[in-house]
Amino acid sequence: MPLNMFWDQKIETLDRAALERLQLQRLQDTVQRVAARVPFYQQKFAELGVKPDDIRSLANLRRLPFTTSADLRANYPAGMLAVSLDDTLRLHTSSGTTGKPKALFFSRQDVDNAAELCARSFVMTGVTKKDVFQNMMTYGMFTGALVTHYGAEKVGCLVIPAGPGNSERQVMLMQDFRTTFIHLTPSYGLYLATFLEKHGVEPRRDLALRKAFVGAEAYTEETRRKIEEGLGVDVYNSYGLSEMNGPGIAFECEQKHGMHIWEDHFLIEIIDPQTGDPVADGQPGELVMTSLCREAMPLLRYRTRDITSIMLEPCACDRTHRRLNRITGRSDDMLIVRGVNIYPQQIERVLMAQSGVGRNYLIALEGLDEMTVKVELAEAGFDGQVEHLMKLQSHLAEKLRAEILIKPQVELLPPGSLPVSEGKAKRVVDNRKM
Ligand code: AMP
Ligand code: ZN
User: Fold this and answer.
1) What percent of the chain has pLDDT over 90?
2) 104 CB less than 6 Å from ligand 1?
3) Which of 32, 86, 250, 290 is least surrounded by CB atoms within 10 angstroms?
4) Ligand that comes closest to the CA of residue 425
5) Is the whole model's pTM more than 0.85, yes or no?
């Protein structure tokens, strides 16, 4: 492994025993701080009868309370703060759906740590200060753009804060400033690929682009391949959530096989979302995270709702921080249609593997319990022969039935006809009258 693929080799390759000692020390410190300063945790500790001194090993973590997104909303705006407001430096909110968002405060140290972890995450794929970073995540309250922005600056890259959308301008910027890597959502990645194709831009010929960090939404390996082909890049999966810094929590290394989660900053558990009990090693479940370094708003055992599993085997890159498998969705993403449990990712996997199918889709639930999968055709996908369309339609319906066990309606649409969102894509519209 070339030395320059590490931002902080010592910590990234720290042996497990030393890493766990560091984790315990930081966990104890975090628990002391919240017990002293956060009324929410003081009350929870009292209910459970735990005291900070009870945390003598990492296994004692299970004695601590869970924290949920409802708890964050209930303590809006500043109830979860563990520092005085004067010591906060930045406010972000999480991409909430309705009502009050989750308010997430950062201290100076938190801003710096978040950038540090992004720097590690970029550098482990070979990014250096010579690279040019065009950030296509949404700037604003969302952590997606600002945190990676600071991370790339820390590495010393030229950073272009383009934000998402306006693809014509994106291409101009990429050409004029020789952009080498980008960070964007999978839905915008798919859209941009279509845009390049439509405008005759051959990425490998016309752009200097080499890498794309893709995250903020769940996506499949099939989608990764589509973005890689369409943008002429290597795609690295990038995971984060605002409650825990935002992006830079878990990214893929150059192996592109599972995301190293920075365990000197986060303790992880995988639990059964129904019972709250840990799953067996390597089994899928809900990711639960405890922050170990966050100053302004430390969170204990935060229920992310994201479904993943821990990879058991060590990585060829020598990093000792364990890897998470691709997030397959959120436990609250699950749809129940005609009594069957379905994750939107299952549908995406079928669609993106099918030739002739384009890059945008929508799952519409209507009427009593009817599912229609609307999907765009590829630019070059339709030869004008209606029977070919009908064949593709029934083929897709069959493939989907094999995957999700119910047969949806399939609607094929011309390229560019479905809405494209600038932030996270809305893949499911549920207008059922039940
Ligand atoms: P936010 O806090 O608004 O940044 O949203 C965080 C959420 O986005 C996570 O809890 C995940 O549900 C989702 N997310 C972020 N990155 C990924 C990724 N690489 N794969 C799947 N889901 C992701
Ligand atoms: Zn690795």
Assistant:
1) 90
2) no
3) 86
4) 1
5) yes
